[in-house]
UniProtKB/TrEMBL annotation:
Belongs to the ABC transporter superfamily. Residues 4-235 form the ABC transporter domain. InterPro entries: AAA+_ATPase, ABC_transporter-like_ATP-bd, ABC_transporter_ATP-binding, P-loop_NTPase. SUPFAM superfamilies: P-loop containing nucleoside triphosphate hydrolases. Keywords: ATP-binding, Nucleotide-binding, Transport. This is ABC transporter ATP-binding protein. The keyword DNA-binding does not apply. GO terms for molecular function: ATP binding; ATP hydrolysis activity. The lineage of its organism: Bacteria, Bacillati, Bacillota, Clostridia, Eubacteriales.
Length: 303
């Protein structure tokens, strides 16, 4: 059974189409990066999947449950962290988590134990008694993630979870997200603009623009769809050139049809007596793929 399923999912606000014909299926334990510019329809999608909005057309399910007819069960399965999540500013971080835990049906003892566990993992133990209103942006982000994880959700919806975090805090958040997916089997639905971050964390992606899902799949699949090229790149002694290669950022490179070409190409360069300092295969990054699709979309070639 898919953790998340959508077929033809659409939502309009008056004449404005916020989401049109979204179809996808995500297995349990996957980390899915949902990418797109502001206004693409990412937040609308999350609200539809969690039952906060009703679709204009189409259907969706979380572990086979409809967010419309099984709203209470779906809410129990999901943890949601948004950029606009709010805590009670006068309550301490710990008290906030205990309150929301009890609100979800946990006993005070269970909520206290779970809150302490999450605060420790997110490096917030030293500030657990500080009023949440005095938390820095980064601390508030981590507290919001702790709140989303309180009920041990099977699906975790995250909106820019590392926004405003210093590198150490971001690392702690990433480690916890990876742990949830890898060890706990939690399915992570990650909305982000940080493409390098998404490439490190996610195993598959969806690229959304103007309400349309342009493409979905792992990075290799998306690169093929986008026509993004891999390159054989060499760094040679100063002044040396190679026929058929272009120079870019101090490297000589040429397109590769497949990685199997690289060993033969390297042998050929060495036979020519070239002084090879470094050789590498440059594969398309998520940034390359993303901007290729977004550029096509802006050019009117949505698919």
């Amino acid at each position: 059974m898919d953790a998340i399923y959508a077929q033809g999912l659409s939502r309009s606000f008056g004449e404005k189409k916020a989401l049109e014909g979204l179809s996808l299926s995500l297995p349990q334990g996957s980390v899915f990066g949902f990418l797109g510019p502001n206004g693409a329809g990412k937040t609308t999608t999350v609200k539809l999947l969690t039952g906060l909005l009703t679709p204009t057309r189409g259907e969706c399910a979380v572990f086979g449950l409809s967010p419309r007819s099984d709203a209470e069960k779906v809410h129990a399965l999901c943890g949601v962290m948004t950029e606009s999540a709010r805590m009670y500013p006068q309550l301490s971080g710990l008290a906030n988590l205990i309150f929301f835990g009890e609100l979800c049906g946990m006993t005070r003892a269970a909520a206290t134990e779970r809150a302490g566990e999450l605060l420790k993992k997110l490096d917030l133990t030293d500030s657990e008694k500080l009023p949440a209103g005095k938390y820095s942006t980064g601390m508030a982000q981590r507290l919001s993630l702790a709140r989303a994880l309180l009920g041990r959700p099977k699906v975790l919806f995250l909106d820019e979870p590392t926004s405003g975090l210093d590198p150490e805090s971001a690392q702690a958040v990433n480690a916890l997200i990876s742990e949830q997916a890898g060890q706990e089997g939690v399915t992570v639905f990650l909305c982000t603009h940080q493409l390098r971050y998404a490439q490190d964390l996610c195993d598959s992606y969806g690229i959304l623009d103007h309400g349309f899902l342009l493409a979905k799949g792992d990075l290799s699949h998306l690169a093929k769809l986008a026509g993004c090229q891999s390159y054989a790149s060499f760094r040679l002694a100063s002044g040396e050139e190679l026929a058929g290669f272009e120079r870019k950022n101090g490297w000589l490179r040429r397109p590769l049809e497949s990685q199997e070409e690289m060993p033969g190409l390297l042998r050929e360069v060495v036979r020519e007596g070239r002084c090879v300092y470094e050789a590498r295969i440059e594969t398309p990054t998520l940034e390359d793929v993303y901007f290729s699709f977004i550029g096509q979309s802006e050019g009117g070639t949505e698919s």
